[in-house]
Amino acid sequence: MRNAALLAVAALLTICGCKSGAGGGTLRSVNYLPPRDSQETLARLNRNIDRIEGAVTAPATVSVSFRDNQGKARSINGYDATLIFDRPRCLYLNIKHPLAGSIARLGSNDERYWLTVDFEDNHNLVWGTWAALESGQARPLAVPPDRLLQTLLFQPIDDRLPGGMPPQLVEEYGQKVLLFQRRNPSGWVYVARRMRLSNQAPFLPVEINDYLSDGTVVMTARLSDHQPISGTTDTWTARSFRIQWPVEEASMTLRLQDVRYREKDYPFCTFPEDWSGSVERLDLTPDARSGP
Question: What structural domains does the chain harbor?
């Protein structure tokens, strides 16, 4: 009887939530039952993302490998970095050399994305507009900004990929997997994205793989060490990311040491208009109104 009463109280708290102590907010409990279908899975993932209220920041350690404009292999291994993000697309990733200070910055705002490298013989700014990228009118960037933002799971997940169909939730080897499908030019359906979920609540993605219609792997991402944002109990993010973009011959390992809401309010995703090094624009059909 006592156990039954405790279970009833637990169920009530899960449904209604309870008031927190210091923060005065509502502690929304994690749903410990696995999602039943794709619609419920997406709803849960997007509820978690929607709870991010304001800019988040984290000290980080990052390793990146890529090819520069001349096709030369470059790498940055185990450098300290700072990550700041605010929805919908305000990103700042500043990578710092132990002696030289800031050497690379990956950034974006609602209109543009960019990468600056300022180290040794590289003093380059590469940038493009989201409009051109999303319409297929942009050359690739070494670290694809759209796929990076999708992998960090700071943005809502659409119920289908562009030109695709609603996902299916299947079970593979005892784990839930979301399959996002598209049709190739011949009309055949193919899997464009596989999102494997954790078996543990709150059932967040632990692996994301993207494919072209011919089976070419565009991205593989491993996400781990999911924790609530500091000061919250119900808004979760991964702390560790291992991402590869085989087509671009690029990879990134990102370890977030702590994720918390940002207290400072100065701008952090302003396009570097005053860059003094070389500038390369990725848009294939530049709009004269959108800058240099």
Answer: 33-290 (2.50.20.10)
